[in-house]
Amino acid sequence: MAPSFHIPLITLPSRAGDAIAPDQLDLLRQACLDHGFFLLNNADGHGGFQIAPEQIGRVWAAAADLFDAPLEAKRAVSVASSANNRGYFSSADHAEYNKDPAGVRIKDNKEGFFFGSDNLISPGNRVPAGKAAAGVEVEAYMAAGRAACVTVMRAIVAAGLLAAAGETCPDAFESRYLSDPVYMAKCLKYPPSNGNTDAHTDYGCITLLLPGDSGLEVHVGGAWHPVPFAPGAFVINFGDLLAAWSRGAVRSTIHRVIYNSAAGAPRYSVPLFLHPNRGTAVRTPGGAAAGGSVGGFGRPAGDGSGDVEVDTYSYVLSRFDATYKHRAAATAGGAGAEAAAAAMEAEAGTAAATTATA
């Protein structure tokens, strides 16, 4: 029987020392097993917030300011001219790699700005001329969003959802894998009627989405279901890497945006994506058992288990290569994500590797 569709609102403490209520852990476990989506209450239940409401207001204003730049100014900072995949992109920059559940290949219909942490390839976010203040505001929001994502990952460990990978202590997990995580954000703008949309799974660990409106849908049980829009809450979902790392305890589910505004207004959103520390390798099932985009990536563990060891940073770059035309062209002819990752490691400095075992 297909799981019933319900996306719970979950409250988590924003400080590591505060206990998570048992009923909230139960809701988290069920959401991860059912579909990998939940709403994170911005109010943390202890008088604080995951992200200050004033900061959320400022990032909305910053996103609007970025998109208000003239098209020529936006194109001047295109990701296609960036070695580090930062800056402006539109549907023309995307490779047609996504498929809907029926197997039909489709392309995104949106524009956006891509921001990354300093340990993602190389430093330097890019914004249109005259929009430096907006860029600073997005980076400040990213830092707050990173902390909220770490809170969620700690809860995942506390709920026992990474026990199959040998990870049961939130403090040890954070110290080992999230002391300097790779993270990125996008400011996105969808047209009032966005037509074709990309049905996809996310490829990393956690996505923290600040939605400006409804329109997000999840594919569960052979049907599309709307994700509730709740002002004062973030949408959390999980990617292919965490699903494989958890050995199926956490689901990575196909989702899309369908948006048609009767008022003719565009839809804005700000997703933030969290990955482990640069230099981290995780052990996952190999092949089809891994699911999603992880199955064909990584090196055999060499112990006859059929597992693979996935360098998470190289994996992230491989997904960039599949998503953006300019990166696909740059890595054509056998260069591939591993060569690109090696070159970028030499540029930014080698990180110490840690390996998670299951």
UniProtKB/TrEMBL annotation:
<keyword id="KW-0408">Iron</keyword>
<dbReference type="InterPro" id="IPR050231">
    <property type="entry name" value="Iron_ascorbate_oxido_reductase"/>
</dbReference>
<feature type="domain" description="Fe2OG dioxygenase">
    <location>
        <begin position="181"/>
        <end position="276"/>
    </location>
</feature>
<dbReference type="GO" id="GO:0016491">
    <property type="term" value="F:oxidoreductase activity"/>
</dbReference>
<comment type="similarity">
    <text>Belongs to the iron/ascorbate-dependent oxidoreductase family.</text>
</comment>
<dbReference type="InterPro" id="IPR005123">
    <property type="entry name" value="Oxoglu/Fe-dep_dioxygenase_dom"/>
</dbReference>
<keyword id="KW-0560">Oxidoreductase</keyword>
<protein>
    <recommendedName>
        <fullName>Fe2OG dioxygenase domain-containing protein</fullName>
    </recommendedName>
</protein>
<dbReference type="GO" id="GO:0046872">
    <property type="term" value="F:metal ion binding"/>
</dbReference>
<dbReference type="Pfam" id="PF14226">
    <property type="entry name" value="DIOX_N"/>
</dbReference>
<dbReference type="Pfam" id="PF03171">
    <property type="entry name" value="2OG-FeII_Oxy"/>
</dbReference>
<keyword id="KW-0479">Metal-binding</keyword>
<dbReference type="InterPro" id="IPR044861">
    <property type="entry name" value="IPNS-like_FE2OG_OXY"/>
</dbReference>
<dbReference type="InterPro" id="IPR027443">
    <property type="entry name" value="IPNS-like_sf"/>
</dbReference>
<dbReference type="InterPro" id="IPR026992">
    <property type="entry name" value="DIOX_N"/>
</dbReference>
